[in-house]
Amino acid sequence: MSTSPKLFERLHEEFRRRHYAYETEKSYTRWIKEFIQFHHMTPPRDLGREAVEAFLTHLAVNQRVAASTQNQAFSALIFLYRDVYQRDTDWNLDALRARTTRYVPTVLSREETFAILNQMSGVPKLIVQVLYGSGLRLRESLNLRVKDLDFAQHQIVVRDTKGRESRVTPLPDRLIEPLTQHLQTVKRWHEMDLHQGYGAVVLPYALDRKYPNANRQWIWQFVFPAKSRNRDPQSDQVGRYHFHASNVQKALKQAVGLAKIQKRVSCHTFRHSFATHLLHNDYDIRTVQELLGHKDVKTTMIYTHVLNRGGRGVRSPLDA
């Protein structure tokens, strides 16, 4: 399709202009490519509401995707038609929607949590400790900058959040010393990079234009940088991006196996466990909501269902 390169250039420019996260850009671009392929490489500008309906129905019926996955695909297409093509997207879609499933998140006990952590080491362990100790999402942890760690106040300022609203969460006492030692190593890397003519880091929201020299300052460096320099896919500059998520996920998977935990554990499980353990320790639901950065307390309420399951909330008649 001859118009594809130009289209994806426009998409890239619009993502940059609106400061979308790189992960969002990748997922939206993938859905738009799938949409084009589904319609036999027809240029999207020649399609509209009916084509979107057909694609979303295909995802629900043929691919049997989850509701959240279908919604992400829909958001990508809304972005394409509303923000790139400047069209009215107030559509009354008649697409078959994927079934929304209500699930109870996997939560680890404290014993299981530390059994897994004891099988980990190095930077992956430190990152997972932050996920559990402070309730961060994996992406939030990887995007932390040096200035976001407040050792004096024992808190972490989470700025690059899912809803783009900053929040404050506790920095565990147990992590003060290992994080301090880790940052000493990171600072040596940064000083070496500066000496070799590098040391610039990508700044969020085009702050590099507002503060031209800030990208080489120590406080703006990633807390968990990559071990080697590479070319950033967004800015095209060479420097140290943050530690790759897949490295944490691989280390965690191995640790779960070694700890012989018979649960489906992901990085997000530690955020679930953070919230559930706080509620178990009688912290107020509103406090937990604020620490997690949930806009609606209903989202946080899912963890009360975890607490009330099984023997904690109902006594089995077999034990009566």
From TrEMBL:
Residues 103-316 form the Tyr recombinase domain. GO terms for biological process: DNA integration; DNA recombination. Keywords: DNA integration, DNA recombination, DNA-binding. GO terms for molecular function: DNA binding. Residues 1-85 form the Core-binding (CB) domain. The keyword Translocase does not apply. Pfam families: Phage_int_SAM_4, Phage_integrase. The keyword DNA-binding applies. InterPro entries: CB, DNA_brk_join_enz, Integrase-like_cat_sf, Integrase_catalytic, Integrase_integron-type, Integrase_recombinase_N, Integrase_SAM-like_N, Tyrosine_recombinase_XerCD. Belongs to the 'phage' integrase family. This is Integron integrase. It comes from Phormidesmis priestleyi ULC007.
